[in-house]
Amino acid sequence: MHFTTPVELSKGLPSITHAQQLLLMGSCFAENIGTLLKDNSFHCDVNPFGILYNPFSISEALKEILAGKQYTEDDLFFFRDCWHSPMHHGMFSAASVDEVLRQINDRLLQAHDRMEHTDWLLLTWGTAYVYQQKDTGRIVSNCHKQPEGSFSRRMLAVDEIVREYTLLLEELRKRNSGLKVLFTVSPIRHIRDGLHANQLSKATLLLAIEQLQTAFPDFVFYFPSYEIVLDELRDYRFYTDDMLHPSPVAIRYLWERFSEVFFSDETKKIMEECESIRKALAHRPFHPDSEEHKRFLGQIVLKIERLNGKYPYLEFE
Fold it and tell me: Fewer CB atoms inside 10 A, N or C side of the chain?
């Protein structure tokens, strides 16, 4: 007897390894997976613009990374005692314009420098709804709590998403012939859109990705995180208290399913050793100045050195 309806995962997809460079962009689900990848010593750059939700904001951010854009004060606006970028998450906002520009430009430069060496681009779309500034028509990534009357809200059409990403993917591939792109749709429900509208939004994203996969079958792939949560974890106990975001248990389950598809046996073995080191480093001693604890730390250092000797590309924070 089966108590779930398992989602069939694609077979024979390219592997993700510790030797590769990864760039993750999109909703907070990208942050969740990015954190787990970093914890397991993968080379990751996660959300250089902060959390982004809609396909057009992610596309615009990627274009700015490719162009090596550097922000100036003209790209920002002042509201409620802080400077903000309409392209960036509120984590970049600050009372000082110089501080905002420093944070934004540092992250942009870092992402630009790594872009041509990136092996995997993992994009998580959250919603097909966008907010456009009424005075400019520009789609913003974040409204930063400005009055709703300043924006018009609409849902992107499948065709316009496909057109936008067809051009973008062609440009990305032209600059980096070895790049592979993995799309996923966030399982987080956007309740503000309404439950029916949220389903229409997710369906729009899924249809757009399907068309992009058909157009670029050699380097565009899909991981069904949305379907796994809806069909394999069909219970509110797998959500946080807001009943919208997947719980830590659900995220861990998605990570296990992700690992099934993209990690080789060797990669999983490296991850086990990294996990052992991470748990040891997280240990809080009762007597941190004792000789016993110093010997314990020395053993961890030796373990890291041995692992780095075998796999010199590993990253330990």
Answer: N
Closest CA to 29 of 169, 96, 123, 146: 123
In a domain, 300, yes or no: yes
Q: At 238, phi and psi to the nearest 5?
A: -95, 15
Tell me if 86 sits within 8 A of 93, measured CB to CB.
no
Number of domains making up the chain: 2
Binning pLDDT at 50, 70 and 90, where does residue 284 land?
Answer: confident
Answer yes or no: do 248 and 272 share one domain. Answer: no
* 280 and 254 in a common domain: no
Is the same domain home to 216 and 288?
A: no
Q: Are residues 237 and 292 in the same domain?
A: no
SS3 assignment, position 136: coil
For 298, the domain range is: 265-317
Residue pLDDT, tens place only, 24-47: 999 988 999 999 999 898 999 999
Looking from the CA of 289 toward its CB, the CA atoms found within 13 Å total 0
Q: Which of 204, 46, 175, 157 has its CA nearest to residue 111?
A: 46
User: Is residue 4, in this structure, part of any structural domain at all?
Assistant: no
Asked if 67 and 88 sit in the same domain, the reply is yes
Query: Residue 163: which CATH number?
Result: 3.40.50.1110
pLDDT at 236 over 90: no
Q: Are residues 190 and 142 in the same domain?
A: yes
Contact 155, 198 (CB under 8 A): no
Q: Does residue 251 surpass a pLDDT of 60? A: yes
DSSP per-residue letters across 7-73 = PPPPSSPPPP-TTSEEEEEESHHHHHHHHHHHHTT-EEEE-TT----SHHHHHHHHHHHHHT----G
Average pLDDT rounded to a whole number, residues 11-21: 94
Dist. CA 116–CA 137, nearest whole Å: 31
Q: How confident is the model at residue 108 (pLDDT cuts 50, 70, 90)?
A: very high
Does any domain span residue 15? no
Residue with tokens 């073995």: 269
Task: Tell me the average pLDDT of the chain.
Answer: 92
